[in-house]
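Q: Hi! First time asking for a complex rather than a single chain. Here are the components, and I think there are two in total. Is that enough to go on?
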Amino acid sequence: MADAHVHHDPNIGTTGLDNRKVGMWIFLGSDCMFFGSLIGTYLSYKGKSLGGPGPHDVFNIPLTSESAAVLLASSLTMVLALAALQKSDLKWAGRWLLATAILGAHFVLNQVYEFATFVLHDGLTLSTNLFGSSFYTLTGFHGAHVTGGVIWLMALWWQLKRGRLDARDYTKVEIAGLYWHFVDIVWIAIFTIIYLIP
Amino acid sequence: MATHAAFMPGGATKEAAATGVWSWITTVDHKRIGILYGVTAFIFFLMGGIEALIMRAQLARPDNDLVSAQTFNELFTMHGTTMVFLAIMPLSAAFFNYMIPLQIGARDVAFPRLNALSYWIFLSGGLFLNSSFLFGAAPDGGWFGYTTLTTRQFSPGHSIDFWMLGLQILGIASMLAGFNFIVTIVNMRAPGMTLMRMPVFIWMSLVVQFLVVLAFPAITVALILLMFDRFFGTLFYAPAAGADPLLWQHLFWIFGHPEVYILILPAMGIVSEVLPTFARKPLFGAPVVIYSGIMIGFFGFGVWSHHMFSVGMGPVADSVFSIATMLIAVPTGVKILNWISTLWGGSIRFTSALLFSLGFIAMFTMGGLSGVMHASPPVDLQQTDTYFVVAHFHYVLFGGSIFGIFSGFYYWWPKMTGRLLDERLGKWHFWLMMIGFNMTFFPQHYLGLIGMPRRIYTYAADLNWGFWNMVSTIGAFIIAVSILVFIVNVFKTRRNGQVAGPDPWDARTLEWAIPSPPPVYNFASIPTVHGRDELWLQKHGDGHGGAPVPKPAPASAKDIAAIHMPPPSYWPILLALALTVMLSGLLVSYYQVVIGGLLTLYCMFKFALEYHRPAQEAH
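A: Yes, that's all I need. Here is the structure of the assembled complex.
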């Protein structure tokens, strides 16, 4: 086998899938358990706080809906970035990558604004009540995931700008995309469970 | 990554020639990383053992004052934590690292540098945890660290901080290794090695890795919440603010029970390799052993609350978890019957490796029987927090995992070092350990039933617990002697041991088809696999008159020179250090956290881009 396929891609394994892609899927499975545990904690403490403010004293649903829409839109631009790269359209691949990162950054800034409002305006901190503890921890870890994703996307974009990323490296963008879509899906779950269900 | 072989300088011969400390620090060879795991974990195993001996010395007679109550708390906490996270798990990881690529016919794991990173993070975590002794702040909250005992209010010092951060560092190492091994097993198999042709050790390893990547996030979250409570004033474990006192217990045991199978399944895999080799028979009902392993892994996620019967979850929860726990005994029992049936009618060679596997079957069965007892909540209420439970889990973790791991040592030692361990000393080791082990832990069943609670640092003379405690202590020191015999064996055979050759046991699987120790590239030509016991099929056929299957064509010197192996890298150790600087910063100053975080990010970029091709390279 080794000798016959001189140009065989060393990343492609027994299953015909790329090692890095299989690894990313396993990581995402693991991350499901991570968010599952955090969401479970939030739910088990729902309505158990001994004092206010509660979720619906502080939530600004229009603002968070905008966040959700922005993050969903960023999944579209992520797909377009990968498609452009696979077609060797480096100009548009770069633009879409940058657009995805900007939308992600927008989401994070919305969250910073949201947290700041809750703390300064509503007096809800990590130590106010169980809601404050579990809400900030859950959404904060999601925000940290988005921030990590933005850094990753910016790094890919910078590599592309320097001419060190092209259609041959599409898998690198694809696995960043897997991560990005996952973080997006987790947000749909969080937005529904925490913000929308009364 | 091996995956970028095309862009890499160097080659097989370059790494093979490398010696010296620097070559070990920068190695990405799965065999060397396996040895690093083995040596490090064995040293931690000795430390955990010494902690146990001090505890046994303290308990040898009533009203003893060898150590204080506080020291005793530190000893049992560090003994448990060390044996679970720093000894048994990484000793298993040593075999995963060394044997997974060899048994599936691969040249390395899927992500060799990630593999090195796992090891260095594991080492950092272990050293960080044990450095607590130097600061006089050894963890003292028990290995399962129940809140609220471990919250800032009741554990104001740094001891729990060391424990909590140490476990988080170790968790990162385990999870990274888990991703790596799953991808390796799923995606790096030699041609012809279908899933059902994989050796049973590989199957058990695969199940373990899935347990690791799915169970560790739960304890990660539990520890993060504890960290937030202790450092940032959240209220997750503060009942005064309405918090549920059981939250920690649920999160911990959702991890903790799968962890039990993370500890035992590798040993089951080892035994499933050793028995067929020394009985000269295929593993009886191998597919059933594999399915049973998968079932154990699956059920392992549904039984965690049997650790919590005594907290009063109500009859429905108790019944469900009780039935699920009893169900898990079925696949386990199936395996035991399969192992015994493998021996039945075989031409058995009683080597040290086989003796340890037989010891495993007998001791693990006893541990399993006491386990089924406290699957029943009323019985459990009687036994919980007594020495009966201590006896039970030592029968499965020592009598099971450690016996299995020593079986693996005697079995694979010649493959790893090229020399056989001395069989006479090996048998001394086995019988001393068998006698010492049963002397130590069997009386603890009885002590538990007559009411001796676990984790007490002394007891009054008129309770009449003294005699059996003394027996138990003598047994513990016999175990220590048996470990010394093993160490003597290692040093004695290091230079003068009998040279093994590629296949000293007339064994069955692919690792024995190559020289001992294997060359850096493992397989000069990648084999094509025809069945579960590929090497046996090559040597002897299928035993039903079928002709032996063809051996792979020998590789020419030119072929070997063309093999590209990943070159060494120092980014794994630097990244592990940066991560440790960041996490340990919580104990020093937030500036250190920030600086460590930036360093971590920098190292991650260097790590990720190390083999990215230069800008100008055309294709």
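A: The first helix of chain A runs from residue 19 to 44. Let me know if you'd like any chain examined more closely.
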